[in-house]
Write a structure and sequence with these properties.
This protein has a four-stranded antiparallel sheet. It has about 375 residues and is of the alpha+beta class. Strand 2 and strand 3 form a beta hairpin. The chain has two domains: about 190 residues, FAD/NAD(P)-binding domain, CATH 3.50.50; about 170 residues, Alpha-Beta Complex (Flavocytochrome C3, Chain A, domain 1), CATH 3.90.700. Helix content is about 30%, strand content about 20%. It comes from Fusarium odoratissimum (strain NRRL 54006). Keywords: FAD, Flavoprotein, Oxidoreductase. Its cofactor is FAD. GO terms for molecular function: oxidoreductase activity.
């Protein structure tokens, strides 16, 4: 994500020739001094040398290390979908569901809090539904990929662990994941989600890695994909005995005849119509699930990162618990609280770039005695 932007910024740094870029280095702690606790640098550990190095920064430090999507302990603390002690709870929230970079482990929040930094929105994510990636080399490891397009196509629908639908599968990915979180909070038995689809779907929109019968057989044998000639037998493989999948299929197919989802209005706005299949009528997002064999694959309430982080002011300065800025400490991107509510593409990249510009501008203003401290 954002590779083109990163490439352009890297090119600018190289053109100027006075920017040092250290890779494979882990931030361990922030350095501070004086009674006011001004941040004057950072201690980092470099993988190549296996040594810790103190890097001093006369104007300040900007934390832009992402959120904590890949830190399971922090996910359990802040993103738990159902209480740990909930009877019958089958799902909490897993780092394995996330599309975020492996280095997204919450280091900014950890080092910031050691200096008394405040934080907010730690229970929120940039939600994107995910699924097992069936591509060769990834399916064996259980790696995930986005599922936003897979769940939006006709001839399919998503159910919970009871076999019931609970949201419009073609809605934007952020609200879709929020719907999954809410469903899990409502019913601890309903905390496993499945995409149910038929052979028409498999023929028209095969998930990557399932383009032929051989790859489908491999996925089934590995337990990554479930298949059966009947809905009832498919349900026995994935759901509890008291499921409602059969009645859900019957009602879904009836609604597909006139193209109206009377419960969740799937395919009734322009976004959903765009993400569906224009060749399917009368509703591009609805198609009956009636052609065997039938399939089921797990859908996870995944994410592209967390939305919460260090609390900052209008100058991108990190605020302490007292509401006063910590001198010399700045944050941006997913290391700080999200600026935008929208989950459209780019709503993390643009704010991160802007916050970086604001932070450096404030550093320079402070250095010449003209700005907020």
């Amino acid at each position: 994500m954002g590779q083109s932007l990163i490439a352009q910024l890297l090119n600018i740094c190289r053109k100027h020739g006075n920017v040092s870029i250290l890779t494979r280095c882990e931030l361990q702690e922030l350095l501070s001094s004086g009674a006011e606790g001004r941040v004057i640098g950072a201690k980092v550990r470099c993988e190549r040398s296996h040594e810790s190095v103190d890097i001093h920064a006369s104007l300040g430090v900007i934390l832009a290390t992402g959120g904590f999507s890949q830190n399971q302990v922090m996910r359990d603390t802040y993103l738990r979908i159902v209480p740990a002690e909930a009877a019958g709870a089958k799902m909490v929230t897993m780092a394995d569901w996330s599309l975020a970079a492996r280095g997204d482990v919450g280091v900014a929040l950890q080092v910031g809090e050691r200096l008394g930094a405040d934080s907010a929105q730690l229970d929120q994510v940039w939600g994107i539904p995910t699924r097992i990636d069936f591509a060769e080399g990834r399916i064996m490891e259980g790696k995930v990929t986005e599922a936003m397009f897979a769940i939006s196509k006709p001839f399919s629908f998503v159910v919970d662990g009871d076999g019931r639908r609970f949201f419009s599968e073609s809605q934007p990915y952020g609200p879709a994941v929020r719907a999954m979180y809410e469903r899990a909070k409502e019913n601890t038995k309903a905390t496993v989600f499945w995409l149910i689809f038929d052979s028409t779907y498999m023929q028209e929109y095969p998930p990557r890695g399932l383009e032929n019968s051989c790859s489908i057989d491999v996925a089934v044998n590995l337990g990554r994909l479930f298949r059966s000639d009947t809905i009832d037998d498919l349900a026995k493989q994935i759901l509890e005995p008291d499921h409602h999948l059969q009645s859900t299929v019957v009602e879904w197919n009836e609604m597909c005849e006139n193209g109206h989802d009377k419960y969740f209005h799937r395919g009734e706005d322009r976004y959903q119509q765009f993400i569906g299949d224009p060749d399917v009528t009368p509703n591009p997002c609805m198609g009956p699930v009636k052609e065997s064999p039938f399939y089921a694959m797990k859908i996870f309430p995944g994410d592209a990162g967390t939305r919460g982080g260090l609390l900052t002011d209008e100058f991108a300065r990190v605020l302490g618990k007292s509401g006063i800025a910590i001198p010399g400490l700045y944050a941006g991107g997913n290391a700080s609280v999200a600026l935008l509510e929208s989950q459209g593409a780019g709503t993390t990249l643009a704010p991160a770039m802007t916050e970086g510009f604001i932070a450096v501008s404030n550093m320079l203003s402070v250095a010449i005695g003209a700005g907020a401290r």
